[in-house]
Specification:
Catalyzes the conversion of (8S)-3',8-cyclo-7,8-dihydroguanosine 5'-triphosphate to cyclic pyranopterin monophosphate (cPMP). GO terms for molecular function: cyclic pyranopterin monophosphate synthase activity. Homohexamer; trimer of dimers. The protein is of the alpha+beta class and about 160 residues long. Helix content is about 30%, strand content about 30%. The protein has four helices and five strands. It has a five-stranded antiparallel beta sheet with strand order 2-3-1-4-5, covered by helices on one side. A hairpin with a 6-residue loop joins strand 4 and strand 5. It is elongated and about 50 Å long. The two termini are about 25 Å apart.
Length: about 160
């Protein structure tokens, strides 16, 4: 198997995507933010000392998707055409899901993964005063569509 992000001498390189066709592409990633039932109650009631943690997490995730090439060195700067961030509360966790869309020469998997990760980090920042033991886990790509490799879906 040939690694695409290294040259023949093993040095890191940014892949040249200029010959690829522009196609509609999307990716969905998920993560789990585990915390206490008390924090979930505060999230439901908008009762955290720092304010609306869910709104902050959503905006942080969207901003992160747009800034992915600044954070992940070999990612291409591409036009992001849409980002949706869903935050679903359960008894002791927040399920984070993000879908990123573009029409470009390369996919948006890294943008979706960065989105859910930074949304989770923003949640941690907002709740750490009441739960320093909260944790972000299970960051993973769920689905990608478009491009040369077509569609991919995580299997249960």
């Amino acid at each position: 198997m040939e690694l695409t992000h290294v040259d023949s001498s093993g040095a890191a390189r940014m892949v040249d995507v200029s010959a690829k066709d522009v196609t509609v592409r999307s990716a969905t990633a998920t993560a789990v933010f585990s915390t206490t039932a008390e924090v979930i109650g505060l999230l439901r009631a908008d009762g955290l000392p720092k304010g609306d943690a869910l709104a902050v997490a959503r905006i942080a995730g969207i901003a992160a998707a747009k800034r992915t090439p600044d954070l992940v060195p070999l990612c291409h700067p591409i036009a992001i055409h849409g980002v949706s961030v869903e935050l679903e509360l359960s008894t002791d966790a927040v399920s984070i899901s993000a879908t990123v869309r573009t029409a470009d020469r390369t996919g948006v998997e890294m943008e979706a993964l960065t989105c859910v990760t930074v949304a989770g980090l923003a949640l941690y920042d907002m709740v750490k005063a009441v739960d320093r033991g909260a944790r972000l886990t299970d960051v993973q790509l769920q689905h990608k569509a478009g491009g040369r490799t077509g569609e991919w879906e995580r299997r249960p």
